[in-house]
Amino acid sequence: MTTPTPLVNNTQLSVNVTTKSQEQSLYQSSGAIVAAIVVGVIIIFTVVLLILKTYNRRMRVKRELEPKPTKAAMPPALGQPSHSLPQHPTVTFIPVDIHMQNR
């Protein structure tokens, strides 16, 4: 005598397995995309940093190799005659007694 075996819905089980694997692959691919973006940004920053370093080095070398102008060759500042010696501004401080009484 044979007993009827319950039918297991194999289609529903396979759908659940494929759905989970699709979700899992989506999570993995989104993680890979984020990682690729982060690596790309790091590479871009590195390239920009190297370009700026080489530019800075070239400009510094260029400044150091240029002949420095002498003081006689520099034009005088506006409002100063060219024959006078440069005058340095002086600051005079006069202390005032706050408690000074009028006499």
UniProtKB/TrEMBL annotation:
Superkingdom of source: Eukaryota
Q: Which GO terms describe its cellular component?
A: paranode region of axon; plasma membrane; Schmidt-Lanterman incisure
One GO-annotated biological process of the protein = regulation of myelination
Disordered: where is this region?
A: 66-89
One GO MF term, please?
Answer: structural constituent of myelin sheath
Q: Provide the coiled-coil residue spans.
A: none
Q: Which InterPro entries match?
A: NCMAP
Q: Where would you find the membrane-spanning parts of this chain?
A: 32-52
Keywords of this entry: Membrane, Transmembrane, Transmembrane helix
User: What name does this protein carry?
Assistant: Noncompact myelin-associated protein
What is the native source organism of this protein? Answer: Nestor notabilis
